[in-house]
Amino acid sequence: MIPFEWELILSALLFVIGVYGVLVRRNAIVVLMSVEIMFNAPILNLVAFSSYVGDPAGQMFALVAIALAAGEAAVGLAIFLVLYNAHGTVDLSRVRLLRW
Amino acid sequence: MYEYAWLILVLPLLGFLIAGLLGRYFPKHVGWVGVVTIGAAFVVALFLLVQVLQAGAIGGHVPPETVRGIKWVEGFEFNLLVDNLSVFMLTLVSLLSTLIALYSIGYMKDEEGKPRYFAEICLFVAGMLGTVSADNFLQLLIFWEIMGLCSYLLIGFWYHKPEAASAAKKAFLVTRVGDVLFLFGVIAIWNIFGTVEFKGIQEGLAANWASIDPRMLTLIPLLLFGGAVGKSAQFPLHVWLPDAMEGPTPVSALIHAATMVKAGVYLVARSFIFLVPTHEVAGNLEVIDGAVPWNAILVIAIIGGFTAFFAATMALASYDIKRVLAFSTISQLAYMFLGLGAGAWLLASHGVEETVGYSASLFHLTNHAFFKALLFLAAGSVIHAVHTNDMREMGGLRKYMPVTAWTMLIGSLALAGIPPFSGFWSKDQILAVTFEMGAEQTLFYALYALGILTAFMTAFYTFRLWFMTFAGTFRGHHEDRVHESPGVMTGPLAVRAVFAVVSGLFLFIVPGTWSNLIFYGEAAAESPLKTFLHFPENALAGLSIAVAAGGVGLAYLVYYRQRIPAAVFTRSPAGAGVHRILSNRYYMDNAYNGFASVAVMAFSRAVDWVDRRVIDGAVNAVGRGTLALAGASDWFDRKVIDGAVNAFSLSTVRTSLSLRRRQTGRVQNYAAVVVLGLSVVILVVLIVRIVLPALGVLP
Q: Are B327 and B242 in contact (CB under 8 A)?
């Protein structure tokens, strides 16, 4: 059996990799993918704590969250589509309408 | 009863207005305005004189009558005084003025500014008539100042000539010294008596003399005499009169010989109410012994005696025909003051009936007014013909202008004191009274000696003048142009010549004429001639005739026969020195000028310095102080207040400038900030909840 701590560490790694991707990558699609990676970290936590505590409600909640994440991805892709139509690019470093 | 007497003042004033305001529309005939108005005043004055004479002025006592006029302020009215003295002076002055106005028409024929001339003459006559008819000292002073103004204006008639302008200023300023003393006298009178009217003063003095400070009783007549010294050009204020000859000759004759300079004598005659105070005892007037200011009387007599001698010496060395006459005027006026002084002493010591000295002075005033105006007008006629004042450029004029020559000879004989011409009678009487008073106050003997010496010099310089002008040969230029003057000039000369002879004989024609001029009446009814009729006076009369004849004889030998060359007197060093002193008028003019230029200028400079440095300095300092304060305020406003406001806004701008750079518009930057902030929150929670409790710092 995989120790509980390793699961938490994996979750933290996923989160940090996601943050890194959000902060560093310029392509909006990649940023959205990194957000999905970050999203998976708490879901993994839900599953880990559910098995650790022995309550299956956590795993059910993880399934609900995955479904919500699909919706989130759809909204995000729609935004980027509009962004691309307006600016002709999805490079976040070029979209600076709120600059001073 | 005498209300029409106001006409005497109003008529010349009317002439002044007509000539002054309308004269420029008829400049050729403006002179007749003066002659007619002044002549009309003379007619009215003559009528008044006749009325007063009928009321019993001769041989008796006419009570002084006041003609009410305008009330000016409470306690002071403009009134006319009608009494013997004022009516006599009114008639005399208006007669002389009429004749001189007539003469002026000829003399000023070719002058520019005739309207101005005749307007000023009319105003002067109004001033003089007002002076002699005032019933109080304040009104007298007001008209006295009008005369002074006209004298100034007329001396400076040719104001474009610098000598005339400065002579006018000198006359005005020097007489001003006397006028200020006179003003002080009037103020003192008002303070002590509460009135300035002659009558009120006389009554107040009789009632309260014991309670008045005796020093004031001496001071007041001396202050009034100070005014007379200035106006009548007595020592030491005599310096203006010779220079006043820069004016037109009729002005010299009218103002500076016949009338204005006599106002001083008139003023002293009026101040007899102080010199010889009287009160009534059992119906008779008696002198108040305790209130007689003996020292003041003595001062008047001494100034008179000394000035007579002093001015005569200066006349000896002058070559200017008008200046000789001016010095002679000073000298003759001084005789009058000597006579008034001696006469006051006589009245005070012998009682109110002994008016001989007083009346002799007024007699001399009259005689002198006629013969000196005659001499001046004759001199004017000569100047008109030869166009110079210098006697060294005349000579032999008898041939060309016989009327002038003979009338001037009559005037000269009168001035020299040769009987029966008028000057002799009055001058001799003055000297006789002076001599008699020597028995009471030895000083009068000395004054008599001065008077006799003066009589000798007078005869000498008068005939020196006549011989140099009319005898011998002509020494000037343009002999062909010398001519006799026109009828309007020789006519008044002839009239005056007649007066110069007969005015002395009034003494015999109308007994008591002059003694009745004493204005408090009660004079001796008989002729003052009675003093002539006993021994010492006969001897004195003989002596004065002898010295006068001696003077004339010496002048005859020196300047006519030329037996004695004139250089004899100036050959020796002492003689030359005396001559130099005399022709420089004892250096008194230089001394006064020196005083003016040193002391007055130094004072002015000091005042100027104070003005510039202290007053202006203070004002400038205030200005500079205000400026500095404003500067400081401005600096504070700009630097501190504005600085604070600006610094606040600037720092806001700077802060916002630096803050806005944080708005990069890059979504990842914002995300980074969120991550950073979350990390910090987590770190803090970790430290506070885990690290610190583990280290034992927090529970």
A: yes
Interior angle at CA B523, CA B95 and CA B520, nearest 5: 70
B663, B666, B675: residue with CB nearest A19: B675
Return phi, psi of residue B668, to 5°: -70, -30
Q: Hey, what long-range contacts does B654-660 have (CB within 8 A, 24 or more apart)?
A: B660/A100
> What is the Cα–Cα distance from B268 to B221, expressed in whole angstroms?
8
Cα-Cα-Cα-Cα dihedral of B206, B212, B214, B218, to 10°?
Answer: -70
Nearest chain B Cα to A25, which residue?
B668
Contacts of A99 in chain B (CB under 8 A): 663-666
Strands B76-82 and B65-73, bridge-based pairing: antiparallel
Q: Contact, B173 vs B595, CB < 8 A?
A: no
Residue A3, Cβ density class (10 Å: 0-12 exposed, 13-18 middle, ≥19 buried): exposed
DSSP three-state, residue B622: helix
Strand partners, B390: B320
Q: Which residues of A touch B672 (CB under 8 A)?
A: 23
Q: A98 touching B, CB under 8 A?
A: yes
**Does A2 contact B at CB distance below 8 Å?**
no
pLDDT in tens, B154-210: 998 988 888 888 889 889 988 998 999 999 999 999 988 888 888 888 888 888 888
For residue B283, pLDDT over 80 is answered with: no
**Pairwise CA distance, residues B158 & B386, whole Å:** 19
B323-335 pLDDT per residue, tens: 899 999 999 999 9
Would the CB atoms of B664 and A96 count as touching at under 8 Å? yes
pTM score, whole prediction: 0.74
Q: pLDDT value at position A61?
A: 93
| B661 closest CB neighbour out of A92, A96, A100 | A100
A99 touches chain B (CB under 8 A): yes
Question: For residue B557, how many other CB atoms are within 10 A of its CB?
Answer: 12
Could you tell me which chain A residue has the CA closest to the CA of B667?
A: A92
What pLDDT, on a 0 to 100 scale, did the predictor assign at position B496? Answer: 84
- What is the sign, positive or negative, of the torsion defined by CA atoms of B187, B190, B195, B200? negative
| B288 pLDDT above the threshold of 90 | no
Cβ distance of A100 and B660 shorter than 8 Å? yes
Q: Rounded to an integer, what distance in angstroms lies between the CA atom of residue B87 and that of residue B66? A: 12
Q: Name the helix (H) or strand (E) containing B227.
A: helix B214-231
Q: What is the pLDDT of residues B474-506, one digit of tens each?
A: 887 777 777 787 777 788 888 888 888 887 777
Q: What is the pLDDT of residues A45-84, one digit of tens each?
A: 999 999 889 889 989 999 999 999 999 999 999 999 998 9
Report how many helices (DSSP H) and strands (DSSP E) chain A contains, helices first: 3, 0
Q: Does A24 touch chain B (CB under 8 A)?
A: yes
**Looking at beta carbons, which residues of chain A come within 8 Å of B660?**
100
The reported pLDDT for the residue numbered B187 is 92
Mean pLDDT over each residue of chain B, to the nearest integer: 85
Q: How confident is the model at residue B592 (pLDDT cuts 50, 70, 90)?
A: confident
pLDDT at B523: 45
A100 CB neighbours in chain B (<8 A) are 660-665
Which residue among B661, B666, B675 sits closest to A92, beta carbon to beta carbon? B666
The dihedrals phi and psi of A91, each to the nearest 5 degrees, come to: -80, 115
Residue of chain A whose Cα is closest to the Cα of B671: A23
Nearest to B317 by CA among B588, B587, B589, B584: B584
Whether chain B has a CB inside 8 Å of the CB on A79: the answer is no
B665 contacts in chain A (CB < 8 Å): 95-100
Is B321 exposed, middle or buried, given 0-12, 13-18 or 19+ CB atoms closer than 10 A? Answer: buried
Cα(B304)–Cα(B233) distance, rounded to whole angstroms? 11
Nearest chain B CA: its distance from A19 CA (Å): 8
